[in-house]
Amino acid sequence: MWTTSPPPSRPGPPTRWAGHQRGPEAALAYRQRFLDLEAAGADLHGEARFVSELAPPPSRVLDAGCGYGRVASELTRRGHYAVGVDADPDLVALAQEDPRTRFVVADLSTLDLRTEQEFHVVLLAGNVVPFLAEGTLAAVLERLTAHLVPGGHLVAGFALGDAVPQGAAPVSLDDYDRLARTAGLSYIARWSTWDRQPFGADSTYALSVHRRLGG
Ligand SMILES: C[S@@+](CC[C@H](N)C(=O)[O-])C[C@H]1O[C@@H](n2cnc3c(N)ncnc32)[C@H](O)[C@@H]1O
Fold it and tell me: Hey, which of 37, 131, 194 would you mutate to test ligand 1's pocket, going by the most ligand atoms within 8 Å of its Cβ?
């Protein structure tokens, strides 16, 4: 586990997210949308609850594509050792307002935290997958798997087909499962929501759980 300065990060190709939004003002506006939802009574912590049930605290969790730290900070609050990584430096700057959680600017397709096999869970929450740079999903899954303990879980939630947000590109579940298998992950389960509603042919959102072989 690294405890001093964060490791350097090799930049990856521009993500679809970077084409969709960038800069400090866009980051603030993005966070504000969530804060407004929360103030209106929305539950923003379904992902953190799911992870805590899968691997109870103090398990180690990598929030991959953490944005402004919505999930990672909640995981810390729940007693996990959480690390957040994102390629958007303006979102990471906001995330770093939480001094209890470690946040790093890094690209998932080249990620090397120098802590191979560190995490019990790697989480891809909130449409990170459809916002990756084109053609990088295989590299991202390989890098994330390398950071999992044997038997650790990769958890990914993303919208499907026409339900993907503006600026994102749909990823088929066949492709996702195939590339996960190639990365050394086995399929465990799939739901349509973070509170485990069943997944069906008409589902517009997939919550997928895979497991690193060898545990
Ligand atoms: C829709 S936001 C979700 C943020 C956060 N997971 C949440 O749910 O609040 C998608 C995030 O994925 C990040 N992302 C996309 N591709 C990435 C990559 N290759 N490396 C690191 N972060 C990436 C973007 O920078 C963006 O912050």
Answer: 131
Question: Rounded to the nearest whole angstrom, what is the distance from the C-alpha of residue 87 to the centroid of ligand 1?
Answer: 7
* 16-212 CATH pick, 3.40.50.10490, 3.40.50.12780, 3.40.50.150, 2.30.30.90: 3.40.50.150
The number of beta carbons lying within 10 Å of the beta carbon of residue 109 is 23
Confidence of residue 10 (pLDDT cuts 50, 70, 90): confident
Residue 152 Cβ < 6 Å to ligand 1: no
pTM of the full structure: 0.95
Best CA proximity match to 143, nearest among 109, 175, 171? 109
Q: Determine if ligand 1 sits within 6 Å of the CB of residue 126.
A: yes
**75 within ligand 1 shell (Cβ under 6 A):** no
Q: How far is CA 36 from the centre of its chain?
A: 22
